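Q: What would this chain look like folded?
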Amino acid sequence: MVEAALDDLLPALKMHELVDQAVTRAGERSWTLAELPWATLRPERLTEADRSAVRFITYVEDHIPGYLSHFLEAFPVADAEQELARFGFNREYFRFLVAWASDEERHASALARYQVETGMATREEILASLAEEGRKKFVLPYEHPVQSFTYTLVQEKATQLFYQRFRETVSEPFLKDLLGRLARDEARHFAFYSNLVGAYVVRDGAAAVPGLKDVIATFRMPLADTMKGYWRWSLKVADSTAYDHTEAYDSVVRLVRGFVDTPGEPSVEDLGDFVQAIRRVR
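A: My prediction, written as structure tokens:
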């Protein structure tokens, strides 16, 4: 990611307000592995499709070191030569990243332990397989911060939707409970990025839309370009849960229509059509 111009960043005070709300909610709604109802495990109720989906999402959640490393490189907080305005923005975003990473690390740990407890794999097997994928670098190709935030908005909404759909298909009680917790966490993350991107749209108006379109046109879920066999596996998982990640694009349309008060502006008017066209060819 190319270093953003200062004009591409929101004021630190605005970031503080958005992050404060998100971090407060994270603290109020946190949960631990110890409080999960492990005694309710019924592995005999798992289908092969359930097991496949659990393995798949464990890889995605466990890549949190890669995701976090990318954002810390893109928004550094250890640079004495940095402008104060830039550091102020990055420092506030760091507060959210720490809370977010804690959530995602907990997700990965819960899913990995679930595999062990249900006999899907040994701890040694899981550590080895996760390390194989986890060492691969995660990079977003966007130049402007609002594009990176829009990507993450879509990704968080897509993940939330997947957990909700997956939960509807499973009969194993522990997994059903866990998926509900994961979905609620992802909904909180989505809410933060929705508010953050919304602040940019309020500030920039219709001028923000082309950048958002570029994200939607080039969107790929995490690990799509690094995990061998990702596309075949992801399609099987999606089919088994009646899930379509492109549904998450609609959240961008609703956000823009909610914040941009220029109904005659062509770039706003055609955003919905643009999203539907993208979804039809995927």
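DSSP finds twelve helices and no strands in the chain.
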